[in-house]
Specification:
The protein is mainly alpha-helical. The chain has 14 helices and no strands. It is elongated.
């Protein structure tokens, strides 16, 4: 039984939580999904396992079930973790994510607040609380949460919070702030396709077409750029008058995503 549990936990540590970071040119960019990062590895004594360490195991299991969409099982694991250590902040961060997906928003908010009460400087909880606010009609409130996450020198993925701060700023019409957040993300991670795409989108809308084209080269380094990115690239080249480059993007879009809304929009001139 112990070996089986260890195998499950090891597999969950390798699992990632990803979502499509791109948004179509006609819509405001949406923030990326929440973050679930495993805690730093802990060396355990051979025969002494504390309640916190046992709670960490069950929280890791809950994170894996959350990522697979098994919210009922995730709640069971979180209940065990909470009983083992009711002061473990990550339990309440995960509760917040699970209840958000389930649409139980008062419970989600209460648990995010509990996580931050226990660990005010935890950047993962700050980011996820900001994500929750932005995706539930409170984008303006989300920006300080992302900023606080970014200021933590121990935060492992500040570029994610920067990109989400940019998307949420764009959603409330603060294009100048969005532009700066995306540029900061690219400074931290020059090849970040998400930041490059969103900055290219702003450039396209502002008429900075050569800059947008250059940023799309970063996006196109991805093995399989999504339909939204190919459509944006096509629109940029159409505006620049490069018919050959425009057709290249359109051909990739038709071949890779024949049933997509972006492919259907090729013939209708939906770049505006």
């Amino acid at each position: 039984m112990r070996n089986a549990l260890a195998a499950v936990v090891a597999a969950l540590f390798l699992a990632g939580c990803q979502s499509n970071p791109f948004a179509p040119p006609a819509q405001p960019p949406q923030p990326q999904g929440p973050q679930i990062q495993p805690p730093a590895p802990t060396r355990l004594e051979q025969q002494v396992v504390t309640p916190r360490q046992r709670a960490e195991v069950h929280a890791d299991l809950a994170a894996g079930y959350y990522e697979r969409g098994q919210m009922d099982v995730a709640l069971e694991e979180l209940g065990i973790a909470e009983r083992l250590d009711a002061t473990y902040p990550r339990v309440y961060n995960l509760y917040g994510l699970v209840y958000s997906v389930m649409g139980e928003l008062p419970k989600a908010e209460a648990n995010f607040r509990r996580a931050l009460e226990l660990a005010p400087n935890d950047s993962e909880s700050r980011h996820n609380w900001g994500w929750y606010l932005c995706t539930h009609g409170r984008a303006r409130e989300s920006i300080p949460e992302f900023e606080q996450a970014i200021r933590n020198p121990l935060y492992r993925t500040p570029e994610v919070a920067l990109v989400n701060a940019g998307k949420c700023s764009a959603s409330i019409g603060d294009v100048a702030a969005a532009d700066q957040y995306f540029r900061r993300a690219l400074q931290l991670r020059p090849g970040d396709p998400t930041a490059a795409y969103n900055l290219a989108l702003l450039g396209f809308r502002a008429g900075r077409l050569p800059e947008a084209r250059a940023l799309m080269r970063v996006v196109m380094r991805e093995t399989t750029p999504p339909a939204e990115a190919l459509f944006l690239g096509m629109c940029i080249e159409r505006k620049l008058g490069d018919a050959q480059a425009e057709q290249s993007y359109a051909l990739q879009l038709r071949n890779r995503y024949p049933q997509s809304a972006e492919t259907a929009a090729i013939a209708t001139g939906g770049c505006e």
